[in-house]
Amino acid sequence: MGPRIGEGPQMTDRDTKTTMSTEDMHESKVSIESQDSNQDARPQGLFHNIKFFVLCHSILQLAQLMISGYLKSSISTVEKRFGLSSQTSGLLAAFNEVGNVSLILLVSYFGSRVHRPRMIGYGAILVALAGLLMTLPHFISEPYRYDHNSPDRSQDLDVSLCLPTTVAPTSALSNDSCSSSTEAKHLTMVGIMFTAQTLLGIGGVPIQPFGISYIDDFAHHSNSPLYLGILFAATTVGPGMAYGLGSLMLRLYVDIDRMPEGGINLTPKDPRWVGAWWLGFLISAGLVVLAACPYFFFPREMPKEKHELRLRRKALAGSATTDSKGEELSSKQEPLKKEAGLAQIAPDLTVVQFIKVFPRVLLRMLRHPIFLLVVLSQVCTSSMVAGMAIFLPKFLERQFSITASFANLLLGSLTIPLSIVGIVLGGVLVKRLHLSPVQCSILCLLGSLLCLLLTLPLFFIGCSTHQIAGITQDLGAQPRPSLFPGCAEPCSCQSNDFNPVCDTSAHVEYTTPCHAGCTGHVVQEVLGKRQAVYTNCSCVAGDGTVLAGSCDSACSRLILPFILLISLGVAVASITHTPSFMLVLRGVKKEDKILAVGMQFMLLRVLAWMPSPVIHGSAIDTTCVLWALSCGRQAVCRYYDHDLLRSRFIGLQFFFKSGSVVCFALVLAILRQQNKEASIKVTVKSSDLQQQL
């Protein structure tokens, strides 16, 4: 369209702008054609295609999140294998975030100064090496011994039987056999895992930020949201695949690479079973190495996506009005990129200047009440998610007597997918309904409140600890009196032995056959499976026999309603993800948006993902009623008070969800007050204008 003519003197400015727009359009068309010809002249290979980069980065993020999330799926297995408390295992999981936080700020500084694809590749290689390092304790440690016999299962002597003192062998794990070298070896194993977790966090630092910025720089602006959406989808699918991988690996015996002669007499349902936790790290590390290879061939800078040039040519061939609007929008956006936010001026600062400027910008952002409250609500939600992601499989194992493999299968196939649905639904609601900040805060408040209400029934879904001879009396319960008091006194039972057996008729569990007074055992074939049966048990009525393994729980049937409520709560809480993110973006100045997002993720790591696993682990440890001892120190917990475990684990979830509700309620109140003040100002200004007229 040409410029409008003959509309009177008052249209002179518009005519001038239109003429200038036409000239600018002609110049930009010439420049675009020259750019297009230059780009066509360059050799365009696979590694100069931003779509191929998006594909590679999606695969890499998937593999990286599999390896970083895999420990969460096998945390209870690692505890049993190396004698760790829940507090220690929680701290181990948190060390991933320690390595990440230690270097995340430098990404803002070096982001545009380095070869980003290669830095991503180096980070991925470090992640793979950290995964391999996590497996090292398995290869340098002795084979796992689930009782105090030799790993050779052909031996007839079972030291867990009731034997006279004169013939009873000394326990291999008694304090007499402990030495400084034994304890030093244990500390070395734990130290290796802590180091590996730290390196895992450090290696993951450049992967997501550099990948997102690289895509945003060289993708067409209309395609960039789609590409980033694909990346975020891979981000959410990764943890689900980690739990799925854990479910598969934990079905295999830990020493599958060095099985003892004669095999083993354990099944995954046995509380002494330890799965092949290390195998998942090997598989994930291999995937990360394969996904990292292409990054060493991507250029430091690639040409802008050609799709942008085609679209702009179509736009230039269209109406001048559309072009003028686009020019005005781009002219408005350009100054925003050049405003003096820390993220924009960081490349022009030295490291010392960057460190000096950062605290002032951080304090300026924390003075925004909306930003501060939304981040605090996200801290509460992330604390809840962190504790659940790490310890929910263990909680399900203990509370409902299911295997570690089945617990991971439930989370990977139900809870994680529903959380993805919640995130997508929240984004759709924000986009389709064009929600304002007040409406976003209402959606977040309703989602958090409904999640809180779904938590209440969880306090009552579960069972008390079943009767365990010599242990449940200390829980305040009213167990039946022993039929044969002092029946196991003639036996030389080791207090630290653990080979649980069950008296199915009385539904009483004994920590070892010795504590049940058993003097013999046989192996029977039941439905094609070998079942160990201990006989001549002086503490058991009737035929005096007990079965190997823990007693079946009456709570197993409650696992489905429990996990459904948990998953629905997670899905509802996930709906708040996108609207709360929009509140952060709209709650700070435009020049601070990039840094605000970075600070948001850093605060979530420091205040939620680092302390929450330790808090949840410490709370779980307080519910233990029987600790295994290793060289005089507390090792792994054998039995928990199930009622206390449920009330404290779910209680922590309820506490964090309540904090999120309070924060979103305050955000809503502040936004409404701001809108009220803004409307009053508009009314005052309009009344002043009327008085002047």
UniProtKB/TrEMBL annotation:
Lineage: superkingdom:
Eukaryota
Kazal-like domain location is 481-541
InterPro entries assigned = Kazal_dom, MFS_trans_sf, OATP
| Main localisation | membrane
Q: What is the topology of this protein in the membrane according to its UniProt annotation?
A: Multi-pass membrane protein
TM segment ranges: 91-112, 119-140, 186-205, 226-254, 274-298, 370-392, 404-430, 442-462, 558-585, 649-671
- Could you tell me the keywords of this UniProt record? Cell membrane, Disulfide bond, Ion transport, Membrane, Transmembrane, Transmembrane helix, Transport
| Cell membrane among keywords | yes
Please report a single Pfam family linked to this protein: OATP
| Compartments where found | Cell membrane
Q: Which PROSITE patterns match?
A: KAZAL_2
- Comp. bias (Basic and acidic residues): 12-30
Entry similarity comment: Belongs to the organo anion transporter (TC 2.A.60) family.
Name the chain's protein: Solute carrier organic anion transporter family member
Source organism of the structure: Mesocricetus auratus (Golden hamster)
